[in-house]
Hints:
- The mean pLDDT is 98.
- The chain has 2 domains: 85 residues, Leucine Dehydrogenase, chain A, domain 1 (Rossmann fold), CATH 3.40.50.10860; 134 residues, NAD(P)-binding Rossmann-like Domain (Rossmann fold, 3-Layer(aba) Sandwich).
- By secondary structure, it is of the alpha/beta class.
- 40% of the residues lie in helices and 16% in strands.
- The strands form 3 sheets. A 6-stranded parallel sheet has the order 1-11-8-7-5-6. A 3-stranded parallel sheet has the order 3-2-4, sandwiched between helices.
- The structure holds guanine.
- Guanine (GUN) binds next to strand 4 and helix 6.
Amino acid sequence: MGAEIIDGRKVATEVKDALISRIEILRARGVTPGLAAVLVGDDPASATYVRGKAKACDKLGIYSEVITRPAGFQQSELIELVRQLNRNEKIHGILVQSPLPPHMDELAVTLTIDLAKDVDGFHPHNVGMLLIGRGELIPCTPHGIIKLLEYYHLDPSGKEVVVVGRSNIVGKPVAALLVQKSPIGNATVTIAHSRSADLPSITKRADIVIAAVGRANTITADMIKEGAVVIDVGINRIEDATRKRGYRLAGDVDYDGCALKASYITPVPGGVGPMTIAMLMANTVKAAELISAG
Ligand code: GUN
């Protein structure tokens, strides 16, 4: 028996559709939600993500500005740009696409973002609020994963969840959400990472495996138990001369192998990726609601 495919595009469409009436209510009050996405440097993957985010805004009637700056842009200039966006009344959400060029300190930039406009949920204040179960602006990819589990009635309560990857963007916040005493929470969560000894013995315990390491084929079929739910956060570009653009996308999971053994699995593309964008739209609308309510 093959796994059921978790259709991130379908769920993302439903999440975005549910925002339309909230956007209309805001517009009737003279408020158009606005997102500013800042892209520094020329990383092609980041450029693709930012374009996707702006396109999603357009479709929903959310105002967006994509601000691109060269790789040599200085940190002080970026901080000044963020300060301007903090003051800009048309903008309710500010996103600085990660990774920034190596000469920049991402934390220094994140600390500059107005807490109420931090639609990535990366500011340490919002990270702390998430940890104590009071987050308003929840990081988009982790929140998208929770929505997928909810949609497919995959209740993590009492289950063993293994998160592979300890990033501040995905691994740590998704673990914090799943351990929470909340409807899609109450899991027993393990965070494994590159220094974990005997990763297969850890992942084999999992009822739900969340792969967020950024390396293709990290999770293979022999590493999961029969009937596990497999959530693949990876978006890796694999060189492929047979494709017009020269590469294909692969997750962190050996999809073909794991799909034979898992009960549910997310594809790449079309799994977690669209959810990240949908939750960004949701956070932008929420930020506009909270800011305009005063
Ligand atoms: N880089 C990879 N994922 C993300 C994200 O969700 N937000 C930002 N700002 N940068 C990212």
